[in-house]
Amino acid sequence: MNRLGRRRFLKGTVATAGVAAAGFPHIWIKDSSFAYAASGKVKVGVLFSLTGTTAIVEESLHKATIMAIEEINDAGGINGMQIEAVVEDPASDPATFAEKARKLVLGDKCVSVFGSYTSASRKAVLPVFEKRKNLYFYPTLYEGRECSKNVVYTGAVPNQQQDDFVPWLVEKFGKRWYLIGSNYIYPKEENNYCKKLLASLGAEVVNEEYVPLGHSEFSSVINKFRSEKPDVIFSTVVGDSVVALHRQYRAAGLDPDTMPMASLTTSENEVAAMGPDAAAGHFTSAPYFMVWDSPENQNFVEAYRKRWGGDKVTHFVSEPSYFQMYLFKQAVEKLAPGDINPANIREAIKGEEMVAPQGRVRIEPENLHTYLWPKIGQCQSDGQFQILKQTSEWLEPLPYKAYPNQVCKESGLKET
Ligand code: ACM
Q: Whose Cα sits closest to atom 1 in ligand 1?
């Protein structure tokens, strides 16, 4: 056999190794793309906290993800292959996120994993996905300043939540801002972006304060709201603390008409948990609100309520949790079964588009972030948001906008 003939023969052996492996489990198959397709199913990890301080939001991300998988499977799967979900509960703890991510990637051999609310948990799993060249689908708004080949980001970055919101608030309410956030990377970076915008508008930060994750006692913070009398309270508090902050603000008799909270993290989900009275009058910037009027959103809301309960709400993190599974499907659909692996899915998802409940979204090929439709909403007494402003075009994701000498390209982070 000449060399070319031998190479062809070896290639053929790998391609048919699946049959042999079933009968000869001692054969170690090195080719990972074979392993991912071997079961005739597309196995994915689902890694959202069902317990702990961010379960308040992550449970709904889990539900939206599972619903999308069920819909896709009921409609025939991906090229006839069913999606098999391996579900883990990382309990709102970054170290547990990393441990469960390793299990899903190495033990269960999932071809991609869908998970995380907090940036702390995303940062904790990142080394697992980068070292093993796997793919993590992250649906949450976050601070940007990340350029990984192993994450698909479908939530908003700061330019998509703040560029319209901050000037609008300054004009409407004034220039003295109080920044309150949970104490970790997301609020600090998000506030860094906010401070640059405020400086460009001639506005000032009267206080910048961080409380521990899970914090529930806001009386001293509220005393400072009273004494500082800011025009706007800009909140990047997350999880259970959102409920505590709003309830205690209301109990203190403060007035959203004169000292509104403007949040990047308070959705219909947190509002349902705190009770609408505590949220009415406050503002949120997000690419999606449950009241958004589109046929795709009507279907999404109806399906979600049918599946999980008529009183349930959808929101700006559950919506990307849902649509990103469809983008994953579109990418995998382009691949032959033997080519299904994380690297090929990553290539296939670049530039993918679909009409999501919020409108048409697109994965930017350079940085794997998503074009989205920013909106400004004010919470009403029924727990829903009234949309006061929306962009006329989808907005490009610029994860390094606060760092103008850096840009995330297909080839990696570039200094300019
Ligand atoms: C967040 O931590 N990205 C909300």
A: 118
Question: How many angstroms does the Cα of residue 186 sit away from the middle of ligand 1?
Answer: 5
Q: 251 alpha carbon to ligand 1 midpoint, in Å?
A: 27
Residue ranges of domains in the chain:
3-156+294-371, 159-286+375-402
Shortest-distance atom of ligand 1 to CA 119:
2
92 close to 53: Cβ distance less than 8 angstroms: yes
CA dihedral over 368, 374, 379, 384, signed as positive or negative: negative
Cα–Cα dist 39/336, whole Å: 14
- CA-to-CA distance for 268 and 379, rounded, in angstroms? 9
> What is the reported pTM?
0.91
Q: Which residues line ligand 1 (CB under 6 A)?
A: 118-119, 140-142, 186, 238, 265
Q: Which residue has a Cα nearest atom 3 of ligand 1?
A: 142
- Joined together, the tokens standing for residue 144 give 């940007």
Q: Which of 36-45, 73-82, 138-147, 248-257 has the lowest mean pLDDT?
A: 36-45
Which fold is adopted by the domain 159-286+375-402?
Rossmann fold (3.40.50)
Confidence of residue 34 (pLDDT cuts 50, 70, 90): low
